[in-house]
Design a protein that fits this description.
Number of strands: 6
Distance between the termini: 8 Å
Radius of gyration: 17 Å
Shape: globular
Number of helices: 9
Largest sheet: 6 strands, parallel
Strand order of the largest sheet: 3-2-1-4-5-6
Helix content: 40-55%
Strand content: 5-15%
Amino acid sequence: MKTVLFDMDGVVVNSEDFWVELEEETIFPEVGVDDVSADEITGMNYREIYDYLDSEYGTTATKEEFVAIYDEAAKKIYGERVSLMNGFHDLLDELRDRETEIALVSSSPHDWIEIVLDRFDLDFAEIVSAEDIDVPGKPEPAIYEYAAARLDRRADECAAVEDSENGVESAVRAGTYCVGYPNGAKELDLSAADVVVSSPAELREELLSLRAPTESR
């Protein structure tokens, strides 16, 4: 595995719990939707969340209104509330020391990603957003296939780190070696991943083992 593809929300930053709380308590009631479980929409692009909710439950807001609500919320969540994964800068340095390419693969739009990159001084070889592909995002595999191609890799030459059921499904269907990283208050089933780790320390150990000289997979 010469390339690691990190999801952003719930992996690089602990944004998922903030989003879930805001969605359940404010956003979904505001657009006329109740009783949506986190596993249904976690990991999806917010524009596709609207399409899903409107199709499955019906909404009282237009897509433009829904997008505006999310954009405003994102500024506060990413700009003020989230924190970076413990030890993430050190993990990136160690991976780069082992000549591992590192990319960010996120359902979030580039505007939101840029807030995180600037706030935490992060840099990646490639930054891929669901906005970059004109096909459905997670749980479909296209975003991971596209990210691998941007790095001149096959998906099965990459490891992906995901915290959501939709994200894990996307990574697995693309053919990556998927590391499930449950990093939120909501219990999600990540058993479809190749391996599930439960802490930044375990994630570090797993990712570094993929490039260890004596390790073969």
